[in-house]
Structures are given as C-alpha cells and as structure tokens.
Amino acid sequence: MDAFLGFLCIAAIVGLIWFIVRQVRSVTPEELAAHKAAKASRNGQPPPPALVTPPPPPSPRAYSADVVDRHGPPPPRGELYEAWSTRTRNVEVVGESYRRENLARLFRGHPLHGDRGLELAHGAVLSADPSNTYHGRAVAIFVSGLHVGYLSREDADPYFPHVSALGELGLSLVVDSRQWARIDHTGTIRARVSLRLPDANGIFPDNDVPAGIHLPVGSAIQVTKEDEHMEAITPWLDPAGGEVSLAATLHAITDIRPRSAVETVQVRVDGEAVGVLSKVSSDNLLPLVKHVHASGNVPVGRATLRGNALKADITLHVAKAQDVDPAWVTSVGPVVQPQPNLEHRPVRPEPEW
C-alpha cells in the first residue's frame, strides 16, 4: 500500500510539472521588444529602435542563377587576336543552360531532333567581364556574336588579366571551339560548348612582337643550326627548361656553302639570327617570305624555344606557301614576279693557289 501511495504521489508531481510546462511558452523577440517599449513609455523614455529581422540569405545556386539571368557581359570589341602559343587544352564552358535562347539562335535552321544532335565548329571569342557580381574575374564566351556561357571560376582566374589586357589594346582573343546541341523529348534544347584554350602564359610571346605581317599558323617546322647562334638564343631560354613562345622574323638570304650558294630562310629573334631552315623547308616558305617582303613588310611567325645552355631547339609554326588561303595572299598585295630582296652574306673569296 505504501508503495502504491508513493507511486501516486510521483505521478501527481510529474503531471503538475507537465501542466506548468504546457502553460508556459517562450517569448518571441517581437513580444520582448513590445514589452520594452511599453516599459520605456511608462518611465517617460523614448522607445527602443524597432527590431528588424534580416531576410535569409539566398542559396549559392539561386544566387548564381539570378546573376546569370540578369547580367549581360560586354561583347567583344576590336580586332580578333590568336594566341601566340600553339599548345592548347580542351576546356568546357559553363552556364549554357541559362542561354538556351542564344544557343537556339546559333543552331537555327539545323536539325536538332536526332539522338546524336548536331555539332558546329565556329570560333569562340573571349571577353573580360569585371562587373559580373558573381565573379569579378569572369570571362564570357561569345560565338557568332552570341553570349553562350562563361569560363569556370577555376579556368577564368589565370586568363582574366590577359583577356583584359587585350581588350585595352582593342583586341579580342579568338580560339577554336565546338558547339553541340540537340532537342530532347520535352522540346528543350540541350547544348554544350567546348574550347581549345592556349596556355595562359602563351597568349603573348616572351619578346616584343615586331612590326610586320603575321604569317598564317601551320604545322611545326624545325629550325636548324641553332648551335651556331647560342649566344643570341641563351637569354631567351626558360631556366626551368620549359617551352618559350617567341615572335620571329623570316628573311630570304643566300647561304654560302663549300661548293654552292643556296637560297634559304633565316630565322631571327629581336633582329639576331637564331638559325636557318633546311633546303626542303626553305623551298616551302620562300615564296611566302618573298611575297611579304615585296609588299614592303617583314614576315612575322610564331616560334617556340626549348632547351638549355648546352642545346636548344627552335620550332616555327607557319603555314607552307602552298597551303595559305588565296584570300590572305591577295590581302598582302598583288602577286608579281619575285624581285630579289636578298640579304647576301659576304662572298666566299676565291682560293689562292
């Protein structure tokens, strides 16, 4: 019996506590502020400032979508500029899903309902977008004048200063690009854009680009006799042994050999000879070099240098004369019978018998 009475007492106490807890509720910040205001009014004091509850911050996904939808980057301007380095890597553009309207315009007139979709290969132009709220170093991508996306934050950071510098010079970086799109079963366009980006440090050459006409880019052509010009080459070598991009000028010369005189192409960097082309390579480039010289200009080509103080290799990236677009040839000037514009080395003296 005593145990039963003790159990009833404990149950009664627990029930009383539960009742009290149910009757007591927490005071909200608004009620607390109202209480303080009433107390201040009774004491003749000014009421405290009203409590302002800040709105919850938007999630990163919602924020970025809002910025992408409302922000328009500056379009590319000025002349198109190709990076000096020919070494590239594949990079995926981001944000295409927010620009379906522009991508639909890009693919207008093309069948997109197949499972494989359709791929285009228009060049893409990069434009710095420093006023982008989401990322102050953003780089926008334009294809055929249409904004189709951005470089990712990770990719944009190293390219932004170079793209901005080009913009200040009135130039816009153009790169190879592929655009793919298809329309799914819901009628929604699905698209992807990829770029072939050069190394960020290879957008400009390590030396100053000389005045002249830039030759079309082509396959690699090996320079020879670099070992005879190491004094001029060594200052341009990368101490870490990496590849260096250089602007080289090409000149038609007469190379005096033991039993003959051969017309060849000499390669110079900042006015200093760094090598010559072989006879086969010279024959492929001499018509191009002479055509530019005949117009009163100096042919300028892309070159890469790799090596050390013991041995260095220079490679040209210039199109062969027979592979150059006829429109480019005409733009340089009229094609005439080549006039000798050679820089002769001293004539080998006759032997004294």
Keywords:
353 residues; single chain; 2 domains; elongated; 27% helix; 8-stranded mixed beta sheet; alpha+beta; 6-stranded antiparallel beta barrel; 8 helices
Task: Walk me through the structure.
By secondary structure, the chain is α+β, with helices and mostly antiparallel strands. It folds into 2 domains: 65-202, no CATH class; 213-343, no CATH class. 27% of the residues lie in helices and 29% in strands. The chain has 8 helices and 16 strands. The chain has helices at residues 2-23, 29-42, 60-70, 100-106, 153-168, 230-233, 279-294, 326-332, and strands spanning 79-82, 88-92, 118-120, 124-129, 138-143, 146-150, 171-183, 189-198, 213-214, 220-224, 244-256, 261-269, 272-277, 299-307, 312-317, 343-344. Strands 1, 2, 3, 4, 5, 6, 7 and 8 form an 8-stranded mixed β-sheet that branches. Strand 14 and strand 15 form a beta hairpin. The chain starts with a helix and ends in a 9-residue tail after the last strand.
